[in-house]
Design goal:
This protein is an alpha/beta fold. Strands 11-12-13-14-17 form a five-stranded mixed sheet. It has a four-stranded mixed sheet with strand order 2-1-10-9, sandwiched between helices.
Length: 587
């Protein structure tokens, strides 16, 4: 007797599409369960491992929820190790039916070592006051070690299935909480962002109805981690709330085999998939022309989660254009976890709306004035518009006195609307610092308007002030990476070691070699490029690969790299010893 081959869930729903017109996630899953769509989990080679129709997800979630009702009181927080797996999806939605508040937690590989991971997990568990933490058996040891002093039980996914079974459900109503989403961890104290049933359903509606205009024939593909809002909301919750099938690979598999992402899109006619810029860049670097791809179905290739960098995206479209990828499929967007996920989307079919400005003028006057033929090349910078604000939401660009600014005036990006979080869990000080009584969120980002579209220029806290100039660390980093020969990776720029204009601007550049001659060449070429293009004194340090610290979404954490540098935890390849900065009293 032969076993029937495992097949992924269908693209077509078999029912009319609904764009998150539900009051709760449970209501959304009940409707999705009547459709033929669902979630599919593939391994790193693109082989289907598990197909999970929404009908089965609903049944499994309800069964587990009856155990959780007996296990924990209403609104208790449950940490869940956010592995890309059917078990995570089941437990997340079981918490919805049981009236619990899940907190998806990052995995050790993202946080730069076991000790660093344990510290982050301790802070999350402490601020979240977890009733328990659920994890795969393979992670039980490290999580138990991390939570040893907090008296938080760690229960494996398998052992959850042995908890006593109850007979009733306790699902959240429309006024209830939905989850706690932890900030990416770019600072030492991650904040727990509250997602409510109202804010999440509103953002899912904005994403699926207005931002992407999800269609009957759409199918999503994702490698994004479930502990980040772009993976959790964008590619698990929002697809379920619009009955959309999703094909997944694990983020670690994507890092090792990025072509599997593109292969899934090609094989299953994926139409919607997002990535930070670096994901597209990685595909170009790893492309070996060793397979046939058809990317013509990919109608919305989203960019989010970090600054949109036009050069790597142009390389991607040049590389894969012959395989059916259309440059107009690029869909830049802007958002953050405090607004559930999305705030703006580029119009469908627009592609990359580029704006090249005079950075000298920008640094002096905070105006985004177009570069001209007289603007030196090293003072030109190209930004990409991230689209228009979602309906029912507002964005204002304000100066530091709170005045609303007009076209091409750079200021703080402030946002208001139904997707905005009520604040941070049990952190009133941080909530009051970011959320106003009138409902406005100060995002911490800087940007400007370009023909009714938002252009984001960077995080205010990353800005380097030097002799009256506003220096963007990204400019230094990108100039170094563009100039560096082969065998160089991430770069990180920051100011350190003093106050005011006494600061030293540092640039750390990862190198995948320890050959002395190659290191000397890299140092000379990059130093000359920085001097020419940035025009400020920058001290370059060549460091080993994997030195940089990245957040759960893959963003560079400049604050944590700076902390490693200043505490002597970084090796200088040119002299092979840790570099330590002694902070001045003023610093």
């Amino acid at each position: 007797m032969t076993t029937a081959p495992l097949l992924p869930t269908a693209t077509l729903r078999g029912k009319p599409i609904r764009h998150s017109d539900f009051k709760t996630l449970c209501e959304g899953l009940e409707y999705a369960a009547t459709c033929d769509t669902g979630l599919n989990f593939f391994d790193g080679k693109g082989t289907l491992v598990t197909a999970l129709p929404y009908s089965e997800l609903r049944d499994r979630a309800i069964k587990t929820a009856k155990r959780l009702v007996e296990f924990a009181p209403k609104n208790a927080r449950i940490g869940i190790a956010a592995v890309t797996s059917p078990q995570f999806a089941e437990l997340f939605f079981a918490c919805q039916y049981a009236g619990l508040v899940p907190a998806p937690l990052p995995l050790p590989v993202t946080l730069g070592g076991r000790s660093s991971y344990e510290r982050q997990l301790q802070r999350m568990a402490d601020t979240g006051d977890f009733h328990a933490l659920f994890a795969p058996a393979s992670m039980e040891g490290i999580m138990t070690s991390a939570l040893n002093d907090l008296n938080v039980p760690v229960i494996t996914f398998e052992d959850v299935e042995t908890l006593p079974m109850g007979s009733s459900l306790r699902e959240h109503d429309e006024k209830g909480l939905c989850y706690i989403q932890y900030s990416s961890g770019s600072s030492s104290a991650p904040k727990g962002i509250l997602g409510t049933q109202k804010s999440v359903t509103a953002n899912c509606r904005g994403i699926t109805r207005d931002g992407l205009t999800v269609l009957e024939q759409d199918r999503a593909t994702s490698w994004l981690p479930m502990y980040h809002d772009m993976g959790l909301i964008g590619f698990m919750i929002a697809p379920m709330m619009s009955q959309l099938t999703v094909d997944y690979i694990d983020p670690n598999d994507f890092t090792r085999r990025p072509m599997t992402w593109l292969q899934l899109i090609s094989d299953h006619r994926g139409t919607l998939s997002f990535s930070p810029t670096f994901g597209y860049e990685l595909c170009v670097r790893r492309w070996r022309a060793d397979r046939e791809l058809d990317l013509s179905s990919w109608r919305a290739a989203g960019i989010g989660g970090d600054m949109v960098r036009p050069e790597p995206l142009t390389e991607f479209s040049d590389t894969f254009g012959s395989m059916g990828f259309a440059e107009t499929a690029f869909t830049p967007s802007y958002g953050l976890a405090e607004t559930t996920l999305a705030a703006t989307f580029a119009p469908r079919g627009q592609g990359l709306k580029k704006h090249t400005i005079d950075m000298g003028r920008y640094e002096r006057t905070s105006e985004a004035v177009e570069a001209t033929e007289l603007t030196p090349a090293e003072q030109q910078r190209t930004f990409v518009a991230c689209g228009t604000v979602l309906p029912e939401h507002e964005i204002e660009i304000r100066d530091f006195d709170g005045n609303v600014l007009g076209e091409k005036k750079v200021g703080q990006v402030c946002l208001r609307g139904p997707s905005v979080s009520p604040g941070y869990f049990r952190n009133q000080q941080a909530t009051e610092a970011s959320f106003s009584k009138e409902g406005w969120l100060n995002t911490g980002d800087l940007g400007y308007w370009l023909e009714n579209q938002l252009v984001v220029t960077g995080r205010f806290k990353d800005l380097i002030l030097w002799h009256g100039r506003n220096i963007w660390p990204q400019d230094i980093e990108w100039a170094a990476q563009a100039a560096a020969p082969h065998r160089c990776g991430r770069a990180c720029a920051f100011a350190s070691g003093g106050a005011g204009d006494e600061k030293q601007i540092m640039l750390l550049l990862e190198c995948r070699t320890r050959d002395a001659e190659l290191l000397d060449e890299i140092y000379s070429v990059v130093t000359a490029a920085i001097r020419l293009e940035v025009g400020v004194p920058v001290k370059l340090m060549l460091v080993p690969r994997s030195t940089m610290v990245v957040t759960s979404s893959g963003k560079l954490s400049r604050a944590r790299v700076k902390d490693k540098f200043e505490t002597g935890q970084i090796i200088d390849l040119l002299d092979e010893k840790p570099m330590k900065i002694v902070k001045s009293d003023a610093g």
